[in-house]
Amino acid sequence: MAFEFRLPDIGEGVAEGEVVQWFVKEGDAIREDEPLVSVLTDKANVEIPSPKSGRIATLHAKVGDKVKVGGLLVTIDTPGGPPGPGAPIPSGGTSAPPAAVPRPSSTSPPGEGAGARALPGGSSGPARLLASPYVRRLAAERGIDLSTVKGSGPAGRITEADLADAPAEKTAPSAPLSSAAPTPGAPVPTPRTTGTAAPTASGGPFFPAAEVRERIPIRGIRRVIFDHMTESTHRAAHFTYVEEVDVSELVRLRDRMAKHVEKQGTRLSFLPFIVKAVVAGLKAHPRLNATMDDAHEELVVRSAYHIGIAAAAPEGLIVPVVRNAEQKSVSQLAREIQELAERGKAGKLGRAELTGSTFTVTSLGALGGLLATPILNYPEVGILGVHKIQRRPVYRADGTIGPADIMNLSVSLDHRVVDGIDGAQFLATVKAYLEDPHQLFAELA
Q1: 158 beta partners
Q2: What sections of 133-206 are H helices per DSSP?
Q3: CA distances (Å), origin 12, targets 19, 75, 152, 161, 413
Q4: End-to-end CA distance of the chain
Q5: What pLDDT shows up at residue 333?
Q6: Separation between Cα atoms, residue 129 and residue 370, nearest integer Å
Q7: What is the DSSP string of 361-423?
Q8: Distance CA 268, CA 330 (A)
Q9: What's the Cα-to-Cα distance from 78 to each of 25, 91, 105, 224, 295, rounded to whole Å?
């Protein structure tokens, strides 16, 4: 029998998911609990197993489609019943296979197919358009009338690929041709050079075809980053404050502690010390440990310290969260940061591990450069950028010149709710703890 599997509720507050990868194709056999599809919600890739054993009859969404919770994902032919639409017909029989029947949309009213709605007298109304919200948005941006597009997906579903050759709607009448001679001195129009790509329907730039190496769709985690960064820069009023820190003593302390921590299989970087210094700074300046509720125009100051650690993953930047960082030792922080980074690179972090941070730290380690202006992890109001440590000569207060390990820190803040003096005082506190890191252990006590 045909079993229709719909997108389950895969997390609190999740309304839809984007199909990132199918592990099967139509006609494949699959067993219960084998990987079926990977779906992106917020920044977490969720691998959904098959609920039944059988054969894949129809995939109702393509990679890049967004599916609402409860929306139809796949039809599986399970043993003990007639095959569903799209299932292969067994060979060897003498009777002709039945004619293909268009599969109704999961959102169609009873009796309405994927094509036209039946009207009295046997006539048909306009075809019902099957397209994901993402495809509809692309069509609107490109000025394409979806009713003129023939869908190549299941049940005539219009896909992104179907939009490639679709004509754009005319937004203005063409100017009439004039038979008059050109005005003296006016430029004479020349034909478009052969090999130049046509303009995009949305009015995008022209590209010589020979120069286009690749077009990369903005999908999956990259599209989440795209939308999140756009929202952050449009909503928050960013400003960045920079401070130079002498971390010579921190370098020595870290080297001594690493010998003991790394015996437990954990690499000890500078990040755990920085996280502890950040927590100390946030305790002293609590308005920075906050998220902005723009809907109610309220700054929500948080009592727990959940520190996001920006990390690179194969599909893009992710921000796993170290929860209750104020309760953890340096070695505990080192172990948790390492585990989160490893699972993030493997794409195995859950939604709960990627949301709920109250402040974010971003670092490129040895590639940290001299200075950057981090973009806020909205709706947070603060993010700390950590830059590389360089040994260089410095002039000391006692009049001597000597070598020191110097690092720059940059904090970006939402100037709508945090003033410059707040940022300067916060970074001064962080600097004091990093320049005398033994205070970190006294602060814990």
Answers
A1: 131
A2: 133-142
A3: 18, 26, 34, 33, 29
A4: 64
A5: 96
A6: 53
A7: EEE-GGG--S---PPP-TTBSEEEEEEEEEEEEEE-TTS-EEEEEEEEEEEEEETTT--HHHH
A8: 9
A9: 16, 19, 21, 36, 48
- Show the tokens assigned to 137: 């948005």
Active site residues: 415, 419
Long-range contacts of 328-331 (CB under 8 A, 24+ apart): 329/444, 330/257, 330/261, 330/268, 330/272, 330/273, 330/276, 330/440, 331/257, 331/261, 331/264, 331/266, 331/268, 331/272
273 contacts 437 by C-beta, under 8 angstroms: yes
Give the list of residues 6+ apart from residue 337 with CB closer than 8 angstroms, or none.
Answer: 269, 271, 272, 275, 309, 322
Say how many residues make up the chain.
445
Phi, psi of 309 (to 5 degrees): -115, 105
Residue with tokens 């992890």: 377
Identify the band that residue 176 occupies on the pLDDT scale cut at 50, 70 and 90. Answer: very low
pLDDT tens, residue by residue, 239-293: 999 999 999 999 999 999 998 898 888 999 999 999 999 999 999 999 999 999 9
The answer to whether residues 138 and 146 touch, using CB atoms and an 8 Å cutoff, is no
pTM here is: 0.61
Determine the Cα–Cα distance for residues 54 and 3; give it in Å rounded to an integer. Answer: 9
Tokens of 131: 């397209």
Record the tokens describing residue 28, joined without a space.
């494949």
Q: In this structure, are residues 46 and 70 in contact, taking their beta carbons and an 8 Å threshold?
A: no
Over residues 192-211, mean pLDDT: 59
Highest mean pLDDT among 340-354, 360-374, 388-402: 388-402
d(C-alpha 80, C-alpha 90), whole Å:
15
How far apart CA 296 and CA 105 sit, in angstroms, is 39
3-state SS assignment for residue 428: helix
The two tokens of residue 36 are 């079926």
User: Taking the mean position of all CA atoms in its chain, how far away is CA 203?
Assistant: 26
Query: Tokens 């940061």 label which residue?
Result: 337
β strands within 251-315, DSSP E: 290-293, 298-301, 307-313
